[in-house]
Amino acid sequence: MQTETSQPTVLGANDGLRLESGPGRDLVFKLTGDDTNGAFDYFTVEVAPKGGPPLHVHHKQEETIHVLKGHFRVRIGEELFELDEGGFAHLPAKMAHAFLNLTDEPGELLMVFTPGGGHRFFEELGPATRDGAPAGGPLNSAVLIESILKRATAIHADLIRVDHHPPNQLFDLLADRLGLAVWEEIPLYHYSPQTFSIALDRGIPQQMLAEMDLRDFNRPSVLFHGFANESSGGSERANALATLHSLDRRIDGTRLTGQAMYGTDPRDDTSAGLDVAGFTVYWGVLYGGRLSGAAVQAFLQQAHATYPKKPIMVLEYGRWADTPYDEAEQQRVFNTYHSQLSADFDTQAGGFVGSGVWWTLDDYWTQRPGLTVEEFGLYRPDGTLRKAGVTAAHAFAANAPSAAPATVRSKGVAVALVPSPNHGRLLPYIAYGFFLPALVLGLAIFLLSRVRPRRLAW
Q1: Tell me: the pLDDT tens digits for 401-411?
Q2: What ranges in 227-373 are assigned the alpha helix state H?
Q3: How far is CA 395 from CA 116, 325, 376, 388, 392, in A?
Q4: What's the distance, Cα to Cα, between the start and end of the chain in Å?
Q5: Phi, then psi, of 329 in degrees rounded to 5
Q6: Is the confidence at residue 328, as pLDDT, over 80?
Q7: Please, which residues have CB within 8 angstroms of residue 126's CB and are 6 or more apart in sequence?
Q8: Shortest CA distance to 132 belongs to which of 9, 247, 273, 17?
Q9: Within 10 Å of residue 339's Cβ, how many Cβ atoms?
Q10: DSSP string, 29-40
Q11: Which domains are delineated in the chain?
């Protein structure tokens, strides 16, 4: 009998399949079952301080743990053990187990699964990177969503624009818990006058917006509802936006409405009937000549002149970082834009800029011809920050308010609860309501009992 032979594998210190089993639990698979003909998985796990998986069972796989760094408590069945660096544990299949990093520093474990193939579970559970490429696919797990939101909070971001369609409902739930604001939108992007007319005649945008509205009840993180992104058309787009704004008000009415207009035309007035004026802005990056603070400021002033009584929401600005040179240029784009935006933030007197949203937090797959991955992210696929990400973290932290604005004060006056003069009349009214019907019923019964039945004459 012949068996298939595995191929040799040689990897560098940081090479392997990087996965995530939860925030602060990064895995690097040096070998998976795909590499060993299903024999075993061999991987390291970085475990966050005071972190570890919940109690769980592997029904088919044996597991071993070898502590490389830290001090861990390990539960096997009903027994508890503590392992220091160099400690080892074998966790048999079908036996409940868990482990916990007891220290205030990240710990590290070397683990083996037998048979292999366990990496597929983590690929479905969280983001994966291989050969420097991002994961991709829908946000369909709480672990994956939390990891994204935690990366946003790590750089002190406080507003997230969620793609061009409503996210998984867990996204808003976790954003609530982490204190993040959310701009949510329906997928009307790069629409033309014809597609606006066709889609609204069929009721498709109205249905999507109604479902998003109803789902967002009791989700305080969702502050904005967006109706379109980088779309063309004048009166057709304005009419479509008016229809959607009216529907949003009838169903909900608690969110601010907007769209993301092309920044090439700061005089675009199709947001006149909406609550905020949103733009995607790439002056000096995709259009408008050389990058300069003057060009960015000129755009902001023109947009403000078009909408003097609305916040200007910059919903996209950014640049790709495909090479070391591009990383430096990406950082320059951030510095140029943020210096102009932050000077006009509406948290200060005379400010009119409501947001400055960098595109994007992570790299992403694209269908653009000649490209597979857009490297716009502040984070690299391996979870490290690019130069622009490091700069953004410092800038966002500097702009974040340390306390509520001093001018925000409640004008309500506390008033002691005083019993109403009519409070004492409640019981008499209740008694009267019971007594009168009972009296009428009793009288009717008495009168009927006095009536003698007539005898039939035969």
Answers
A1: 655 556 655 56
A2: 235-251, 293-306, 324-343
A3: 45, 22, 18, 10, 5
A4: 112
A5: -65, -40
A6: yes
A7: 19, 20, 21, 22, 141, 143, 144, 147
A8: 17
A9: 13
A10: EEE-TTTTTTS-
A11: 17-125 (2.60.120.10), 142-399 (3.20.20.80)
Residues in CB range of 304: below 8 A, 6 or more apart? 312, 344, 352
Token reading at 91: 């966790």
Residues in Cβ contact with 26 at an 8 Å cutoff, skipping those fewer than 6 apart = 18, 19, 20, 45, 46, 383
Rounded Cα distance between 152 and 162, Å, is 12
Rounded to whole angstroms, the Cα distance separating 65 from 83 reads 10
Closest CA to 307 of 347, 362, 343, 261: 261
For residue range 369-387, what is the model confidence (pLDDT) as tens digits? 777 889 999 998 878 899 9
Beta strands, E only, 338-426: 353-358, 364-365, 373-374
Q: What is the pLDDT of residues 231-247, one digit of tens each?
A: 998 899 999 999 999 99
